[in-house]
Amino acid sequence: MKTLLSILLSLSLVFVFAANAESPERSAEGSALIGAWAVDVSKLPMPPEARPKRVTITFDQPERGRWSTKVEVVDASGATYRAEGVNSLDGTPAPVTGGFESDIASATMPTPDVLILTLGRDGVPGSTRIYTVVRGGKSMIETSSYFGDDGRPIVRTHYFDCL
Q1: Could you list the residue range(s) of the whole structural domain that residue 69 is in?
Q2: CA 82 to CA 145: how far, in whole Å?
Q3: Residues 6 or more apart from 41 whose CB is under 8 A from it?
Q4: Which residues of 100-129 are buried (b: 16+ CB within 10 A; e: fewer)?
């Protein structure tokens, strides 16, 4: 009986330490995502004349367990759109200000170089975006998943360069 209790105690301690090993509060520390990134507009899946002139996204960690995202888009006509938000990395929804695509977002960071951001607008699900740093921190890939107007799922990939 003592052996069984020792094993159960040991296993419970392992689970406690495993659960605390990579909490959302600590996962952003040292992330290569922090900084400014520019979309390679030449790779966007649209005609060149319709492509935005510039798309930049800036990530920061204003405090432990919080994540800041700022997006600026200069469209083909030269109009500028900005959106920003600060999220807890535990998936709690938070408002997006100036959101041309969303008014609410939730975020989590399963590893320091991967961010998962889910967006919505007017109570309707928008898209889920996964940001992953590649090539030694010089590039970032955004995988965007959403549903089209016809109800069919769409997945797009966008390529960013570190500024």
Answers
A1: 23-162
A2: 21
A3: 51, 52, 53, 54, 55
A4: eebbbbbbbbeebbebbbbbbeeeeebbeb
Question: What's the predicted TM-score (pTM) here?
Answer: 0.81
Would you place residue 27 in the very low, low, confident or very high pLDDT band (cuts 50, 70, 90)?
Answer: low
Higher-pLDDT residue of 35 and 18 is 35
CATH number for position 106 = 2.40.128.20
Quick one: pLDDT at residue 142? 97
Domain count, the chain: 1
pLDDT at 3: 33
- CB of 105 closer than 8 Å to CB of 81: no
- As a whole number of angstroms, the distance between CA 70 and CA 82 comes to 7
